[in-house]
Each structure stands twice: as C-alpha cells, then as structure tokens.
Amino acid sequence: MSASLRLSKPVLLIFFTYSSLQCLSVSAAENSKLKSSAQAVTSSEECWLQEKYEVVEKCRPCKQFELTSNSIPVCSVTGYVEKVSCKSSGEVYRSCHNMRAEERAFWTFEGVWFGVFVAGYIAVFLRQRILDGAATAKVHKQIANSV
C-alpha cells in the first residue's frame, strides 16, 4: 500500500506539469490567433464600438467553408460569429464566444481539480493512518520491552 502512495507523487507531479504546459500552449496559440485576426479587422467592421447597434443574428458557430475560405475574417478568432447592424455603417459580423462551451469547459476544469483534491486528501489521510499505526506499534514495542 505504501508503494502505491509513493508512486502517486511522481504521477501527480507529471500531471500538474503536463496540465500547466497545456494551459500555456493554449493561451499562446489563442494569443497569436487573436493578433493575426485583429490585423484583418478594419475600423468599419468595429462599428459597434462607436455607434449604436442591434444584434441581427445570434452567436452561431462558423461553417467550415467560412473558416477555410476566410469569407468572414472574424470567424478565425473564436470560431463563432454574430451579425450586428450598426446605425450608420450597416451590417457587419463580429466574433463572439460560445458561453455554453466555455461554461462546460469551466466546470470540467473545476471537476478535474476537485478530483485531484479528493485524491490528494485520501492519499494524505491514508498515509497519516499508516504513520500513526507505525508510531503506535513502536510505542507498544517500547512498553513491552521495558516491562
């Protein structure tokens, strides 16, 4: 049983390192994607920042054709797009976020870390029981030897 507890430290260390590297690589990839797509957006396409606007089409995933042909340049930012109608500039597309997917990813992340917490708690609890048992056995042995 103590061998399995000794193995859990390297496994957890590898898991933490791997997940940290994954987070860094994903954020770096998103950052470069945002920079490249931000250069493709002109000021007329960002009319919702200066004018009053109305959302014409709700946030939807971009079609494969829109992504590959770059017919809607803002599709490459998040993979989701919504159509807005600005008062003077007319209708343009803007990038949006899929809140359901982000919420699902958040709760998955929270669930994984809660599982890591529970596994760590169980490992510490079992290790403490083993150490307490060893200390009790040592005290009993000392008492038996002194009598």
Question: How does this structure look, described?
Answer:
It holds the Pfam family JTB. Keywords: Cell cycle, Cell division, Cytoplasm, Cytoskeleton, Membrane, Mitochondrion, Mitosis, Signal, Transmembrane, Transmembrane helix. This is Protein JTB. The chain has helices at 2-40, 64-69, 75-78, 99-146, and strands at residues 53-61, 80-86, 90-95. 66% of the residues lie in helices and 15% in strands. A 3-stranded antiparallel sheet has the order 1-2-3. It has 147 residues and is an alpha+beta fold. The two termini are 33 Å apart.
Largest sheet data: 3 strands, antiparallel
**Number of self-contained structural domains:** 3
Number of strands: 3
> What spatial form do the alpha-carbon principal axes imply?
rod-shaped
Helix content: 55-70%
CATH class of the largest domain: Alpha Beta
Count up the helices.
4
From the coordinates shown, what is the CATH architecture of the largest domain? 2-Layer Sandwich
Q: What is the rounded distance between the termini?
A: 33 Å
Low-confidence stretches: 1-5, 33-42
Structural class: alpha+beta
What is the strand content? 5-15%
How do the SSEs run, as a string of H and E?
HEHHEEH
CATH fold naming of the largest domain: Signal recognition particle alu RNA binding heterodimer, srp9/1
| Radius of gyration, in angstroms, nearest whole number | 28 Å
Describe the strand arrangement of the main beta sheet, using strand numbers.
1-2-3
Mean pLDDT across residues: 80
